[in-house]
Structure formats: C-alpha cells, structure tokens
Input
Amino acid sequence: MAAAVVIAQALQCYKGIMDETEIRRLSVGHVLCGLAVLFSLCVPPLLLDEFSLLGTHLTWLCICSVCVVTVNVLLRLTLKPNPSTKRSSFAHKVNKLKQSGLYFFVSCLLFHGIIVLYGAPLIESIWETFLFAVLLSSFTTSRCLCILGPNFHAWIRVFSKDGAMSVWDHSLQITTICSIVGAWLGAFPIPLDWDRPWQVWPISCSLGATFGYVVGLLLAPFWIYWNRKRLTYKSR
Amino acid sequence: MKVGASVLACCCLLIQVLGLALFLRGFFPLPVRSQARKSSISEIPAEPWAGKTSNWTQLPHPLFKKVVIVLIDALRQDFVFGVKGKEHMRYVTQLIEKGSTLSYIAMATAPTVTMPRIKALMTGTIPGFIDIVVNLNSPELLEDNVIWQAKQAGKRIVFYGDDTWIKLFPKHFVESDGTTSFFVSDFTEVDDNVTRHLDDVLKRDDWDVLVLHYLGLDHIGHLTGPHSHLIGPKLYEMDFVLKKIHSALSSKDEDPSFPSLIVVCGDHGMSEAGSHGGSSDEEVQTPLVLISSAFQNKAGTFKEPEIIQQTDLAPTLALGLGLPISRSSLGMLLPAVVEHKTFREQLRFFHLNGYQLCKLLKENLRAYEKDDGVEQFKKAEKLHANWIKLYLEGNTSEVLTNLGRKLIKQYLEALQKLSASLSKQVVEYDIYSMTVGAIITLEMFFLLLICVPSALSSKAEFDLPLASPIFSLFFYMTCLVLAAVHVIVCTSTENMCFFCSISWMMAMAIMVLIAALLCVLLSVLGKIILKHKSSNEKQSSSMSSWSELDLLLLVGTLGHVLSMGASSFIEEEHQTWYFLINTLCLALSQEMCRKYFLVRKRNKMNTSDLEYMEQTDVYINEIYDAHKKELKEERLSILERFIKDNEKWIALASPGIILICCRLLRPLNQTGVQWMHRSDFGHWLTSSEHKPELSFLVGTCLVMIFVLIQGKCSLVSKVALMFGLLGVYCYRATIGHVLYPWQQDTKDITKGITEARFVYIFVLGILITGIKDLLKSHMMCADYKAKSMGLWEVYSGLVLLAALLFRPHNLVVLVFCLLIQIILTMFIWKILKYDAAQITFMHYWFGQAFFFFQGNSNTISTVDISAGFVGLENYVEIPAVLLTAFVTYSGPLLWSMHLLCYLNGEINKTSTAVAHGCFSYAIIRSLPVTVYILLVTGFRYHLFIWSVFSPKLLYEVIHLVISAGICVTFTVVDKNQVAKSEH
Output
C-alpha cells in the first residue's frame, strides 16, 4: 500500500518535471511565433519600397500570414508537440500534408463567409476580406493543423469544455480564442467618425487579431504555469 | 406583501414612464415666449426724448414697397457664395459683385428641418426640439409672426410653394398654391408648379408680399446628394427665376426712395450625404441675400459675407415693411439694411428693436435688471434722448453726427448682448425637474435589479416590504427633507421650472413616492445583505455555473448600453445590433455542434436524459400540431417526416440559415449616418422602373406570410388572414405601388381608403377572435389550447397590420422575421434547452436588430409618417400617431409578442416561464433607458445634443412606453395562468 503511494508521488513528481520542460518548450515556440509577427512588421520596410502597415496593408497581410505559417510548420518539425506513437510511411505523410492544405483552404473560405455574414461587403474589397480570412486562418487553423494534425475529432475535443489534454492543447485554446476575440473587438472602432486611416476595413480588425494573437502567445505559458497543478490533475 | 414577478416588473415600468415624462419635460425646454400673444401697434414705444414726449410716436414708415421672399429649400451657403454659385448662379453672383445686394451667411439652429426653420425665419424665435415631433402635424402657427403682422396691417400676401406654409398660416394669403413635399423623387414638377404663376403675378400690382418656397433642390439633395450633376441645372433654374423677378421689379421701381426688396434665403443647408436635420456646418450655414436698389449707392468691392443668425431676418423684415416686431423674436435688426436712412430713423429702428428684446427678456428672466445688455440699452436710451433733444433744437454740427455714430455703435452692442442672453435662455435646461425624473427612474431600476434573484427563482415571487418602511421614522424624515428641498429650490431658482409650477399637491405626492421608494429599496437591500451573510457559499457556486452564452448575452447587453456614450455608436447603432446577433448565432451554432458531436462522449445517464427529452418533444409536438394533424394533409406529413429524419442536419444548419437571412436583410435598408448614402436594395425596388419586380416580391411575401403564420390559427382567422393579405395587395395596387399581373399601365392613383379599411376590418376581426379565445380560456380554465391559439391569433393580427402599414419592400423584413422565429422555435430552442430569461434576452436582441432592419435609425428623419395616413381621409391625430408608433416599433413589438406566445407554450414545463420572461424583459428595457438619461444629463452641453442624443432619447422613451404596454400584456396573460393554477 505504502509502496503504491510512494510510486504515485514519484509519478506525480515526474509529471511535474515533464510539465516544466514542456512549458519551456512551449514558451520557446511561442516566442518564435511572436518573433514571426514582429519580423513581418519590421523587415519588409527595409526590403520593399513604399511599404507601410496602413498604406500597403494587403502586402502586410500576405507577409504576416506567410511568416506565421512558416514558423508554425518549422516548430512542428523541430518541437514535435504531439508525438504520434505510430511510425507513418512517406505516402501517409504526403497524404496528411495534402489534407492539411485542404483544411487550411476550407478554413479560409469559412472565415471569409463568416466575415461577410458579419457585414463585410460582398463584392467590393473582396481581396481585403479574403486576405484577412487568410490571416485569421494562419493564426488559428495553421496552429491547429501543426499541433493536432488534420484530425477533426481532435479539434472538437480540444475546443470543448475540459477537453484539453496537454499544455499544447491549452496554448492552442488560448491563442485561438485570443485572436478571434481580438478580431471581434477590432471591428468596434469602424463605425466611429474619427476618420483615421486605421479605421478602414479590414485594418482595425487585422490589427486586433494580430494583437490578440500576440497577447495569447504571451499569456498562454504564464497561464499554464500558474494553473499547472490543476491542469496536471485534469489531464490524468 | 408578496408580489408576482410580472406584476412587479409591470409596476416598475409604469412608474418609470412617469419619471421619464418628468425628465423629458425638464430636458426639452419650452421656447422663450412672450406671455401676451401678439404685439399691436398701440404698444409701440415713443422715441425717447428728454423732457416732453417726442412727436414721433408712430411706427416708422416702411422701407420697402414690395417684398419678395424666395426661399429655396436646402440652399447651402456654397451654392451661392461658393464655386457652385459662381458657376451656376451667374446673375446673383453678378448682383453681389456689383454691390447692389447685402449678403450674409445665416446660421440656422438644429433641428435643421423645414418647419422649425420657417418658424424661425418668420417669428424670430428658436423653435425647441419638441417642434420636430409636432412637425408631423404642422398646425397653425399661433405665435406672433411677420406674416400675421403683415396681414393685420392690410398687406396682401401671395404664396406659392411648400404647403407647410399654408398649414402654418391658414387664411393669411390672398392667393396661394401649395405643393406637397410628399413625393421626394419628383424635383421638376414641384418647382414648375411654383414658377408657372410667376409671370402672371409679376405683371400684376395687387400684392405687397410674395413668398416663394422652392422644394426641388431639397429633393435632389435627398436623392443624390450635394455633388450630383442635377444640382447645377437646378441652381441655374433658380438663378433664372431670380433674374426674372429682379428685372420685373426693377422695371416697376418708380420711386427710388421707396424700392422693393428681394430676399433670397435657404431654410437649412444640406449635409455631404444630402440629408439635413443635424448640426454640421454644411447643414447649418445658409445664404441670405437681400437685393434692393436701396443698397445700390454704397457699391464697393465684394467682401466676405457676414455671419448672422437666421432669427435676425424676422425683425429686419418687420421693420422693413413698417410692422411691429414680433413679441418673441430673438433677432436683431441687420444694421446694413437701414444704413442709407437718416440718423434719426436709424436710431429709432434700433431703439424699437432693443425695446422689444428688453421686454421679452423681462418676461423670461427674473434677474433681468442685472443683465449686461439691458444696462447698456438703458444707457443708450438716455443718450438717445439727449441726442434727439439736440437734433430737435436744430443742431446740425459735426458733433451731432459723431454722437449719432457712437450711439448706433452702443445700440448695436446692446442688441447683440440682449439677443445672446435670450438665445441662452432657450437652451437652459430645467435641471430640477430632470433630477426628480431621473431619481424616480433610477429607484425603479435599482428595485428591479435587487429583485433579480428572488424574481427569477422557481417561485417567481418577491416579498415586497411595504408596511414597515412606510411607518418608519426614516420615511417621514426623508419626506420632510424633500419637501424642504422643494421649497428652497423653487423659491431660489432664476429660470422657469416645470416641477415648481405644477400644483402643490402633485409635487408633494411625487416627493412622497420618491421617499417611499427609497425606504423600500433600503429595507430590501438590508434584508438581502442579511441573507447573503448567512449563505455566502451558495452565491459563489452559482456564478461558476454560467455558460458562455450567458456571458455573451450579458456582455453584449452591457456593451450596447455603454456604447451609447459615443455619438457615433448612437448614429450607427444598427451596426452594434447586427454584430451582436451575428455573434449570438455563431454561439448558438457552436452550442449546437457541441450538442451533436460530443453527445457520444458524455456519461451513460445522458441517454435516459435524451429519452426523456424526446418524450417531451413528442408531447409538445402533439400539442402544437394537434389541429394540424386533424387536417392530415399528405404533403405536410411528408414534410414533417423529412424534418424528423434529418433533424440533426437541419438543426446544425439553422443558425447558418438565420445568419444568411440577417445578411440578406442588411442591404435592404441602409440606415445610420455614415453609410446612409450607399444605394440600397429598398431604393432600387421602390423606384418606378422596377414596379414589376416589386409587385412579384410583394405577392410572394404575402403568400409566405400566410404560409408561415397560418399553422397555429383557427379556421376562421385563417380565412380572415387570407382575405386581409389579399386586401393588402389590393391596397398597394390602388395607391400605385404595385401592379396587378393583368394590368399593364398604371391607372389613376387613389388613396386606397376603401381597401385599407377593408384590411383594418380583418385585423380587428382576428384580434377580437384572439381576445375572445383568451377570455374563453380564462373563463373555462384549463383550456390550454384555446389560450395558445388566442395568443397566436392576436400575434397574427398584429402581423397583418404590419403587412398593411409597412412600406412595400419592407414586407421582406416581415417574412424573414417570421421565418427566423419559426426556425428558432422549431429547431434551436427545442433542442438546446434555454430558460425563459435567456430566451427573452435573445428575443430582445433580435427585436432590436429588426427595428433597424426595417430602415429605422436614431434620427427623426427615418420615421415613416406615411403609415399614419393609411386608410384615413386626412390627418387625424390620435390614429395617425398610434399607427406611426406601431409601424416604427413593429420589429421589437412583434418579437416580444412572439416571445409571449413561445413562453406561454413553455408553461407546461415551467409554470413561471411567462413571469420570468416579463421580468427579464422589464429589466432589459429599463437598463438602457436609465443609463441613457444619466448619459444625456452629463452630455447636455455636447455639440451633438440636439442632432444625435435628443432624438435617441425620444426613441428610447417611446420604446419604454411601448414596453410598459407589452409588460402589461404579459402580466395579464400570467395572471390568467396564476388564476388557473389556483383553481
């Protein structure tokens, strides 16, 4: 009996250490993602003429999405958040890649649809709307794809109440919700009559989403660290 | 005393209406008025003269023989003085540059709407905001005004143009031809109707004053905005008219000392979007050009037009025509108009003007002796007397001239100060009445708020302590203090105060009410705190049980209330609501996904739960569709089976369908301010080229309405509904909005009174059947079916009424409203179980969104007044106001009636559903109003107070009055239920 208790305690201890390292890995990943956003803000003005965040917003949207997706893919390859037990063949991997691409595209279309339902113009400024949808997908869907893979059931599990099983799931929840809420809040300044350049569709929303994403990235490790006791308990 | 939640909510709202009425009375100040109605020539003051009375006691002679007032609606300042004016109004520009004119920029005050502006021009007063509301009616102008004075003096006045004038001044004109501004899309005929009389009347010599009011420019502005290509030709046309008048008059001017005058002015400007009503520079600045050969001699270089007030025209016109100045005029004489006269005459004019302003100030301000302007005027008057003495003694030296010049300057300063302090009086708020009203409103709101836990409990009852607080010492103390405050405030205040002027008994009764409410509030609060201490732990657990949807509903509602602090969010309130219901639908679809996709992962006990739910579903279905099954149509049963089989997918898709419906409704009516000018689908449909499309749409919509609503009606009302909807189509066809399929060309248009009354009869019939069913269920008890059918019939009667009154393209809104309601009840609420409070919140959100979907906004200009004339020969005040209110608020009204029907259906499961719904509805309505009056009080000196905040205040208050009515209905239905359960 006593031995069992000791073993359980040791396990708990081990789990704690595991979590510590996981959180550290997670933080590194988040910092890199944050740097990707920063990169998209700082580097293009040096390389491109006449680049400005507000003036050539569409270019920035493309660059930012590409950066974020690339970093996500790189992180997936280096950190391997949810290591699968099975060894998969090359064909299987290609298949998965194809599926992921399809998922990403569908999510872009879905976001586009939702944004139009929210009142974005249907035909005029369609590119703005679509690139904003791409940005949102790269903030949310690309991370999901990289962490969970193209597995719809896993997604539903993660995004339901008490469905997260690891720190990665939690960070996914937090960043996704933060980016979407950021985009949601970003829509509020649009009707104000201040006539500022950033009130033009979709600048305030994309900035809101980016801001939310970065906040989520920074917040997630701390939040998980503070709540690690409760979380380890739950994941067991 | 135990009080039911619905009764409590109902009482609270009714008392809040009282408080708001008091607040409104204080918030909208009455315009400065003279007590005596009209001034007469006998009251004219004599010229001041030291010593004996002056020999000049009569009014000065008129300056002008004939006056032509050309009022061009929505003439913006830059249409005359700007680039557009130089380009298109060549003749006037030439006159201005030659120096035979006086040009000014006259500042109009908000609200920049035609009728108040005509009043301002003719009476010299600043009409209060309340005048807009009366604008629907435009009754006779009873105040003293130039037109009345001219008529009294025997001048013959001829009028052509906007028939608002004829309504304002009935029987004042010897000849008139009114054109109606009802058909906004017409901008050539309205002006041709004015101009066609011109040749004739200019040839004749039997008139003294000619008033022309051109509407075309305003119509162009409303249609296409100030930069449209139509503006240029219209300005050219106006210029041509002015050229004609000017040349005709100058050819007749025989006596150079007694010339005629042409006044060219605009009543208000035009915003960049082409509308008016607000207080932006473009809307407020209007040109005022006075053309007369009297001004010819001082030709000079063209200088920038001086800025004056619109009210200054009235005294100038009055003195120019040799009439007494209207008693309540706030304006000051334009000095340049009398500059060519002798010093004595000029001084006489200024003295008359100052005397009238002083008198008005004396009647409206208690501390008038201390007013700066009055003191200066008294000084100038003394100096004037001395000057006259010198003048009459025959002194003609340079000293006299210099003294005269100085005196004129002094008079002008005095006049300016007097005019300013009078204008300030107009915008003075009656803070005391506002405070009392706000306190009552606040107390009622807090009472509602405190009652939330017990009223939303399973008993839906609230223990209201009445006896103990009333007999407490604190109550009497408060009463005494309030009475003392009342006496002190009323004896010390300088301004007029409504609450002080009502009868002593009334004021005391209100004070006692306030004190009693305060005591009740405190005692309830005390009780709750005591209870809270004993059971602290329970409270925290209840907080964590909130779902995301609760959070969304709460945050959304609070966020909307807070957003009303920004004027842009008030202007664009529809965006807030569209955004919120979209989010709500997405949240619903997320819950739906969770429900269907995660159901497998739940515990086993859930299956039994599900079975139970299915059973209840079947049960409810049976009740709902009992009579449907009696009919047993083959097609219907197939449809039902299809729904049963694919329930999961339909349910999953339903939030999406609602979202798409809302998105489709959005471009139907553009509202708000910023995006108002965008072309919307509604305009496209109502334009005359698209009549066939509109006819098809209206027909389809009417059929859809019938299909969607007939399911739960009895056979009699079904037939009545069908005939009623047919009648609606006939009505629209008779007044020329739609075509019959067999009809190719538009026949003569009538008012369609017979058809409209035909529909009214069916509306009344359905309503009466419904009420009869309700009464029957009340008498017979336990007749559940009759009751829900009765409620549904009342609801369908209202839908029919809305179908009749809505503008034809808005029938789409009605169809989508019914469709969304059906989707919500059949698929969403049946599957996702929500309690009454949550459903009430959602209904409220949808109701608000539909308020804006039907084209309303928070400005007065979008109120559809034409609904008040449906089926009436001419304007009858009470039905017109009721119908207009109904059509304006039909979105929220229909949704809340639907809420009642739905909650009544839920009564089998939870007997307190209606009471909970009623209470939630009351609190959700009282929250924005309460916060808003506090905001408005804080913003009362805000720049947009008249153009943005005040209209919204009116909208909110009227909405609250309607909600109080709805709550009474809820309470009656709920009482019914209580009575039944007691049996």
The CA atoms of residues 88 and 96 of chain A lie 10 Å apart.
